[in-house]
């Protein structure tokens, strides 16, 4: 019922079209759905994925936390953790600003309108100056063929750099993002060390990824 409500809500906003057995995107690959809509979509799945993700985060670690809406759900669960975090979003920076045990490192960069994701050469330079234990990436779309993709070219570049400067990577992608592609390429589907998804992600594609050596976890 939760999935149906999410689909009905997004269909009413013109983001997707309902079809028999599910839905298909009604937006071109170069058009980014509004942040406010994405923040409300598949919220139960995102929270389950976030809860699974924080189990892989250890006190004392340094983390670069992506700008996606699922990454925001991760931030909400980190308030009492003793970790160092560089958020790639002002939404997430605000969420963590009062967390008593978190060391918050802010990158430079330009905040994208509405998204408040940090992009541009100052953000890239901030990432290149540091090394992280973990990059937590929340892509806009995910596909075995197209890999991880983003709607914005600057956002894709920042995600690439975050992956490059981290010892290990964790990708958070609910089932609604699977088998889709956006405009800007980030990395191959088997690049992440760990992918966390939910039961709505296509089972055959999950199996193919594990056969490629990717550690995949289904949050319930």
From TrEMBL:
Entry keywords, A to Z: Transcription, Transcription regulation
Domain spans labelled HTH deoR-type: 1-25
Molecular function per GO: DNA-binding transcription factor activity
Superkingdom in the source lineage: Bacteria
A Pfam family annotated for this UniProt entry: HTH_DeoR
PANTHER family: AGA OPERON TRANSCRIPTIONAL REPRESSOR-RELATED, HTH-TYPE TRANSCRIPTIONAL REGULATOR SRLR-RELATED
Protein name: DeoR family transcriptional regulator
């Amino acid at each position: 019922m939760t999935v149906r409500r999410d689909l009905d809500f997004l269909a009413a906003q013109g983001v997707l079209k309902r079809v028999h057995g599910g839905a298909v995107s009604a937006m071109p690959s170069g058009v980014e759905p509004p942040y406010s809509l994405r923040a409300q979509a598949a919220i139960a799945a995102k929270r389950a994925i976030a809860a699974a993700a924080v189990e892989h985060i250890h006190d004392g670690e340094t983390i670069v936390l992506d700008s996606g809406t699922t990454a925001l759900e991760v931030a909400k669960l980190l308030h009492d953790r003793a970790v160092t975090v560089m958020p790639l979003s002002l939404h997430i920076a605000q969420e963590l600003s009062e967390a008593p045990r978190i060391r918050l490192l802010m990158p430079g960069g330009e905040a994208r309108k509405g998204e408040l994701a940090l992009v541009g050469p100052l953000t890239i330079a901030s990432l290149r100056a540091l090394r992280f234990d973990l990059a937590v990436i929340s892509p806009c779309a995910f596909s075995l063929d197209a890999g991880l993709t983003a709607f914005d070219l600057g956002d894709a570049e920042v995600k690439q750099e975050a992956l490059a400067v981290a010892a290990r990577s964790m990708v958070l992608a609910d089932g609604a993002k699977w088998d889709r592609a956006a405009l800007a390429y980030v990395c191959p589907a088997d690049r992440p060390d760990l992918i966390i998804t939910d039961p709505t992600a296509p089972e055959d594609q999950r199996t193919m990824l594990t056969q490629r050596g990717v550690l995949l976890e289904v949050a319930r």
